[in-house]
Amino acid sequence: MFISFLIGYVVLGLTLSAPIGPVNAAQLDKGVRGGFMPAWFIGLGAAAAAIIYIDRLSRGHSSAGASICAGVFMDVRQFCIAVYRGRRIVKSGSLVSEPIRSGSSELSRSFLQGFLMSLFNPLSIMFWLGIYGSVLARTVHTSTMDQLLLYSAAIIFGVLLWDLFMAAAVSFFRKYLTPSLLKGFAIISGLSLVAFGCYFGFKAFQFLFFT
């Protein structure tokens, strides 16, 4: 029974990481340009941000992340970044600007990029406050602190599994990507980012003018 609970939390970590978003798009870009390590360090940075969310929620500081003003600011910020980046990708028709080397400075930049993208991404905040917050509310009265820590570790393990899978898949398949396929992926990725940006902009507009 306990093992099934742990497996369930690992799966939860996988489902939190799997939806297409800025972090996965960044992993795709880094993986195509630099291979496994830069893409993996993007994921490690995102996992570090997930640990911060779990720690703050476990300590009862979820209200800080739920600030309305902060949420609107991040919606506007994500709207500008996502639409700008998506428009550039669609216009150029390429995810790849130039190859990158897997040096220590590049890996540090990849880690920081993944960390900041996940930490300040409104979708991440929505997932962690909503999904993990509800899980925590259900289990906090029936589990010990050690069990909660173990459940949280299982979620992080699921996040790391997905990041490892993404980095390995992109680095393996990049040798088979033809220019036409890369252009197709670029257009899809760019349009997805524009769609995400429009969603964030709509949410900010809705709050500012209709609430």
TrEMBL record:
MF annotations from Gene Ontology: amino acid transmembrane transporter activity
UniProt entry keywords in alphabetical sequence: Cell membrane, Membrane, Transmembrane, Transmembrane helix
TM region(s), chain numbering: 35-54, 111-131, 151-173, 185-209
Membrane topology of this protein: Multi-pass membrane protein
Any one of the GO CC terms: plasma membrane
Compartment(s) where it occurs, according to its Swiss-Prot or TrEMBL record: Cell membrane
Superkingdom assignment: Bacteria
Name listed for the protein in its UniProt record: LysE family transporter
Originating species: Paenibacillus sp. AN1007
Lineage of source species: Bacteria, Bacillati, Bacillota, Bacilli, Bacillales
